[in-house]
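Structure tokens please, single chain.
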Amino acid sequence: MKRMPCLVAISVILLLIGPFTAVAAEKAKGGRGALNFYTSMQLDFVDPLVQQFEKLYPNLKVEVFYSGAVEMATRVWAEAQADKIRADVIWGADPSFAMQLKDKKLLMQYRSPNAASVPAWLKDKDDYYIAGRVFSMGFAYNTRVLKPQDVPKTWWDFVKLGSKAAMASPLHSGTSFTALAALVEDPNYGWKWWETAAANGVKVLRGTGDVTRALTSGEFSVIKGIDYVVGVHAAEGAPMAYKAPEDGAVAVQSPLAIPSSAPNPANAKLFVDYLLSKEGQKFLAEKGYLTPVRDDVDPPKGFPRAGEIKSLKIPYEAMSTRGKEIREKFRTIYK
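Here you go.
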């Protein structure tokens, strides 16, 4: 498996092992040829997902293109402007990106047979995209440095830690952009929160992987972290744990979408069906420490169900219509 910075191409031959959840007609059309999968999710999550999907469908070559959320969006927009989007499935961490693609009529309508098991708030009412996972951003802390009682309780407590705290840049990370917008649009925080964070010396690193590694090494005692990322690393022995802010985490639905120009639409539908299936969601919960989007799949131990998460309001419309403005304002604070 060769990897390049901000871009990974993984070619796999998928092995059929039994019945699949998609309808027979889609089986006949799909399951062979190619599948182009664009994602901004971390490789330690994507790799086991691909390995699981390797066991399905013979003669299907999957190309996985990985990059940060901003880079992925740039690639997709460039392809759309130059000719057509070449992805079969796009799975990012920024719901506003899916909304923009829908508004530009660049997505295909598709209602998976498994969508009936997904709550209404996690899917587009017109069936242009649907959440494939739910994750939350809160506080990840180094268990060798901080005791549980010393971990920040609220977002305002977080910025008080100054240079001992860090977060990924919203100019690179889609999840961090969601947190940026959520805090900015909330009257309890607004731009004042970000200005205070910068004044206190809270650090901003490039991506989620960067801040997570820095937390593990002890460079920072706490970061704005993602629940499932912490779960995966902690299970591997990293000295970290996750704590949800008492005033609300930033809970994000991660949308799956099929471009209207998808070169392999039948294969794209098969992949979406698998990700939304009970088997797929159970795998994500057990191996990826992700909150399932299905009501009939248990979340990881210690995690709430999607409907039980206390979250700040996510301003998807503002993210979609004023995203550039919000990012530019952030640049003036964190120069």
